[in-house]
Design brief:
Blueprint (H helix, E strand, L loop, with lengths): L2 H13 L6 H12 L13 H7 L12 H18 L1 H4 L15 H5 L5 H16 L13 H21 L9 E3 L2 H12 L5 H4 L19 H19 L7 E6 L17 E11 L2 E10 L14 E7 L2 E8 L19 E6 L2 E10 L5 H5 L5 H5 L9 E14 L4 H6 L10 H17 L5 H18 L1 H13 L2 H4 E3 L11 E3 L2 H12 L6 H9 L5 H13 L5 H10 L20 H21 L11 E4 L1 H7 L10 E4 L13 H6 L8 H11 L17 H5 L4 H8 L3 H15 L13 E2 L2 E2 L4 E2 L5 E2 L2 H10 L1 H17 L8 H13 L4 H9 L2 H4 E3 L2
Helix pairs in contact: 1-2, 1-16, 2-11, 4-8, 7-8, 11-17, 15-16, 15-17, 16-17, 19-20, 21-33, 22-23, 26-29, 31-32, 32-33
Length: 834
């Protein structure tokens, strides 16, 4: 934004400052300023300069003369007439896709209908590339004809976009989602906050929760204000804090029979908590144990010790034992009454551990039954006690703010005389505002924070003033919203290159889900960030930074549905060993594989097939892989006989695409079509019946039941695509275990690729996917581009996607080549004015 825009915002903020108190002032200002961000402030660039500055898209086949081009266009029309019109005529077209009367020459000639035609041709390209058109039971062209037609259509689409760059419309204003807000606070204030307790859940669009709207309704605004006030207190460390509490409750289905990674060896169960203590002083920890349906402590047949640790140092050892003179199951309401302890701790982040020392000499520990999750699910007693929740209360006696990482980052100076507070406050606040607002600081930016500072400084002192100013910064729309302003004087619908500052924000929120750091801002302010060699260097630097872990937590976790694992609840009668420990291990295996591809910059094709996976003892036991001991994860080389490796064999993926009692070839096939092949089936028509329970009662297999389901013509079109792909994963049950029998019958894992090619099992399915790597890489690139831009991919993005895939192929499809290609692409660097 230009300085004029900042003055407009600041004047409105100044006008809305009432004199009735700090809180009311802050609420008033934010509510008015949230909608006062105006557009403009960047230099005008013509579309001619833009096209010259962006890497040129390759245009195969368009060096030919017009006669040859016309011949190619006619060949496409002949191909469509021969292979497509039967299903896609104007009379009841399959999936609503009409190809009758469509002429690729109209796109080549830029006729008025060409934009809509381009959207249709883009869908055709994806189906042809995956060989999904024509359907498997129709006659198909040979590979040479497929390639020729694809080359012609893609060349026409690429040429049309090169002549008329049309970046998709990205929302001018998008607010930070919860993950971005948490990361921004971490990078701004060195403070890790529990954002789930502060802000409401985000809505998702196109599969990602960073595709959000930009308004700030009053209810949400109040949540942001409350969060800002709490975060400011934690960062500064207010000494006037009254005792408060934080309670952490463990999942009911978590086993506590084995070691927890990060806790001392020789212990079992419990939990490890990262907790921020706002001030140095005295706090209290309170423990509760799990109880059965009669409210008796589970598993308490003999005395057990419980260790309380801070930063791995033992602070206190509790002992719990059954009431004297009473057997198990009698009244034990007072058993855990003494499980509380006052302790002193310095301000800042600390690890709190609570765990049970192993009772190696105890017969009950040595001979106890393996944990069965159905015990807890149906409220039967465990074999040994388990932790239910941990509460941390305080501070009771504050000894001062201490030197936390947040305070070390904040207080770069301290006033030595009464004349110095303003100068020192400006020195503290200006760098914060630059990082928070992602641009150079203007004098207008300083007005409201300094006003808040002076009010509190006059009454409560310097640090209270900084706390108030920090609250004002954290509720400012320039922090909460990602605004992309059109250059002043530009006409609506004109394409232009985004500013270097906007580019810095796009880059940092893509790779880090957070604010640009000082290095990015320095390059942006110098006007050099947009240079290709500079961008490539920055991508490499940022991927080596630990903040790139956000690509795992925010991109991969949503793309692969890992976030859905929390809602996976297999039927405990069929899968009694499933528990939260296994759920967590499933997720971690997939995260670590994706993380290793980023860290080592390997080919993303290893997501499909690899001989290395990441296991701990719990997951290895689930997979039947011996020799993996301990709770920590480590890379493990697997053999073909162990049936593990790529993500299609990961229990995480197999579980989120199953039902509670059985597998679902339909869900699994749909997941592969959407996320691996990039060709999702159309939504089902209304009132389609589900698989009938009657069929299950007749002991039909899932395959037989789906065969009956496909007899309904309304169901067949989609299921003929999804089910054959999903059948190839039938050797894995609903929790991802390998099986060759189901209910006494041999498992049939034969299936087919969408092009009709038969596959015998998951190995052949992987081979089929890898036989056309560009299909998978295109699908992954579109997912990454959606995440990077915060909008769905459009047909006008197709040429850029194809260029990214071609260049990545030259670099063995390394992960960095995809990310670099996206950052250098027109959709990432261009914008269309509103």
């Amino acid at each position: 934004m230009g300085s004029a825009d900042h003055r407009v915002v600041s004047r409105q903020a100044d006008a809305c400052m009432p004199t009735i108190g700090l809180l009311a002032a802050s609420r008033c200002c934010v509510q008015h300023r949230a909608f006062a961000i105006t557009m403009g402030g960047m230099k005008h660039l013509t579309s001619i300069l833009i096209v010259a500055a962006i890497p040129t898209l390759s245009l195969p086949g368009y060096a030919d003369d017009l006669a040859t081009s016309a011949g190619r266009h006619r060949a496409v029309s002949t191909f469509v007439e021969s292979y497509c019109i039967d299903c896609h005529s104007t009379d009841d077209p399959e999936s609503g896709l009409v190809l009758e009367g469509l002429d690729v020459a109209a796109v080549a000639a830029s006729l008025p209908s060409s934009r809509a035609d381009s959207d249709v041709w883009d869908k055709v390209v994806k189906r042809l590339r995956a060989r999904q058109m024509p359907p498997a039971d129709y006659s198909k062209p040979d590979e040479a004809d497929y390639d020729k037609v694809l080359s012609t259509i893609e060349s026409v689409l690429d040429d049309a976009v090169a002549r008329h760059p049309t970046p998709g419309r990205t929302d001018s204003i998008r607010r930070l989602n919860r993950a971005e807000y948490r990361a921004a606070i971490r990078d701004l204030l060195a403070l890790d906050v529990d954002v789930e307790s502060l802000l409401p859940p985000d809505q998702s669009g196109h599969g990602f929760d960073n595709v959000t709207v930009g308004d700030l309704p009053p209810v949400l605004l109040n949540r942001y204000l409350s969060a800002a006030e709490k975060i400011s207190r934690l960062a500064v460390g207010g000494t006037g804090l009254s005792p408060g509490g934080t309670t952490i409750r463990l999942p009911a289905d978590r086993s506590q029979e084995s070691h927890v990674d990060g806790l001392p060896l020789g212990t079992r169960g419990g939990t490890l908590i990262q907790h921020h203590f706002p001030v140095t002083g005295e706090y209290e920890i309170q423990l509760r144990l799990t109880r059965d349906r009669d409210e008796n402590v589970e598993g308490l047949r003999e005395p057990h010790d419980i260790d309380f640790l801070i930063d791995r140092d033992l602070q206190h050892r509790f002992t719990v034992k059954p009431p004297e003179g009473k057997g198990y199951g009698k009244d034990d309401t007072l058993v855990e009454a003494h499980l509380k302890k006052r302790f002193r701790v310095t301000a800042g982040p600390h690890q709190i551990g609570v765990t049970f020392p192993q009772k190696f000499a105890s017969l009950s520990e040595i001979k106890r039954q393996p944990f069965d999750a159905s015990f807890n699910r149906h409220r039967h007693p465990r074999q040994t006690p388990a932790l239910f929740e941990v509460s941390i209360v305080g501070p009771f006696e504050s000894e001062g703010r201490g030197e936390t990482p947040s305070r070390q980052r904040l207080f770069s100076c301290r006033p030595q005389t009464d004349a110095e507070p303003d100068a020192c406050a400006r020195k503290i606040l200006a760098p914060l505002i630059r990082l928070a607002y992602r641009r150079p600081v203007t004098e207008d930016d300083m007005l409201v924070p300094m006003r808040f500072f002076r009010q509190r400084n006059d009454t409560d002192g310097f640090e209270a003033g900084i706390e108030a100013a920090l609250t004002a910064i954290l509720v400012n729309p320039h922090f909460l919203l990602r605004a992309e302003s059109d250059p002043s004087g530009i006409e609506a619908g004109e394409v232009y290159r985004i500013s270097d500052l906007t580019l810095a924000s796009r880059l940092s929120f893509f790779l880090w889900s957070s604010l640009p750091d000082q290095a990015l801002l320095d390059l942006a302010e110098a006007g050099t960030l947009h240079q290709d060699e500079v961008l490539v260097s920055q991508v490499q630097r940022m991927l080596k930074d630990e903040r790139s872990q956000s690509l795992v937590e925010n991109f991969a976790a949503q793309w692969l549905y890992l976030r859905n694992l929390d809602s996976v609840r297999p039927d405990m009668r069929k899968f009694p060993d499933f528990d939260d420990n296994l759920r967590t291990a499933m997720r971690r295996e997939t995260e670590l594989l994706f993380e290793s591809l980023i860290r080592d910059d390997r080919s993303v094709l290893e997501l499909i097939r690899t001989d290395t996976t990441f296991l701990n003892e719990r997951l290895a036991r689930h997979y039947g892989i011996p020799g993996v001991i301990g709770s920590h994860f480590r890379p493990v080389t697997v053999t073909d006989a162990q049936h593990r490796g790529g993500i299609l064999r990961h229990a995480s993926i197999l579980a989120v695409t199953s039902y509670a009692t059985r597998t679902s070839p339909t869900l699994r096939g749909n997941w592969i079509l959407k996320n691996i092949l990039g060709t999702p089936p159309p939504p089902p028509p209304p009132n389609v019946p589900s698989l009938q329970d009657k069929a299950a009662a007749e002991r039909l297999t899932v395959r037989e039941r789906l065969t009956l389901h496909r007899e309904n013509p309304a169901c067949a079109a989609c299921h003929n695509l999804m089910d054959p792909v999903g059948f190839a994963l039938e050797n894995y049950d609903a929790v991802g275990r390998w099986r060759i029998f189901e209910d006494g019958q041999g498992v049939d894992a034969s299936g087919a690729m969408p092009d009709g090619t038969s596959v015998a099992d998951v190995s052949e399915l992987e081979a089929g996917i890898l036989s056309r790597p560009d299909v998978f890489i295109s699908a992954l690139t579109e997912k990454l581009l959606t995440f990077a831009l915060g909008r769905g991919v459009e047909s006008s993005d197709g040429p850029a996607v194809r260029q990214i895939v071609r260049r990545a192929a030259e670099d063995e499809y390394r992960f960095s080549s995809l990310l670099t290609g996206i950052v250098l692409s027109p959709p990432f660097q261009l914008r269309i004015s509103e």
